[in-house]
């Protein structure tokens, strides 16, 4: 059967949505030929929000990273596996359901449809799946592009979301570990004579503890990358340029025992190196580029140099955009251009977020939620984005902003942002 794209899908403008709405866009685009109760995207490219969901609230509000990771692990491997629909039964949102799953090998992203069914009519099931797979690949590539080209505000929000998830998960682990360990102690008590019941419930509690610890480890893995893994992904990203360019791109591996990188730092580092290599490749007579990562325990140290004429402009728009990306994660970049000898660029990216400012900020008497709103406000976020990041309503955001204006003695967002900048909030 010849594969024909419907005219309404030949343009991918429907999938040009912001990251927080991309699951809705994909589901709307696929509904004419593939129905489902919910659509879930699991992508580790987005460290702050690895799940993107649309559909029934009872599913999208309860689906967990652990469930999606188990499903992805069971998925047949290999590029050819995505050419045929893989349907199975899996526990999603705490209940066994019929699912259709498709991976995206380039980023290990996963698409899951619950209760899937091709829409009847002139299109058979195989063609419906091919259309779905086509849109999924467009979406997965779009997610990669959006993360690579993310503005500074997105990176700041990503770091805040990652840190918040770690904090909440740690609290849950402490709470449930204590509960389950107490349950185990009770069930192992000699005063209980029903041995069979005690053994059965003990096994259940042990399994729950293991699952909880696994969830903790998995959450940490999602917001951090081993430095060698992060660098390996950079090397793979540069491979096409190394293959098709006449430039010899040399990559110097970081120490294998270097400290793990926060997800947003790893993404920023790869984007900066790729951007620098592309900017250098546009210069005449460049034959060799060397990219090196190192880690001093507190910072990721990046060095990129070339052997060209030294005509790279530190004021060029593409270099300015990279400077913004570096500053978004509280880093710094210096460009040393040597006429006749090439350019030497150094980048330092801190691995820890900046400390919460003190001094004037403490004197304002802000509540923790008000400080979070101020930080996102300073990062350029609008009310809707702040509400989404903090999982509160826009009316609540407006309430906090009114309190901020009163406590900071300002009359506008611009004044509040300027005062926050002067106090060291970025």
From TrEMBL:
SMART domains: HTH_LUXR (SM00421). Keywords: DNA-binding, Transcription, Transcription regulation. SUPFAM superfamilies: ATPase domain of HSP90 chaperone/DNA topoisomerase II/histidine kinase, C-terminal effector domain of the bipartite response regulators. GO terms for molecular function: DNA binding. PROSITE patterns: HTH_LUXR_1, HTH_LUXR_2. Residues 359-424 form the HTH luxR-type domain. GO terms for biological process: regulation of DNA-templated transcription. This is LuxR family transcriptional regulator.
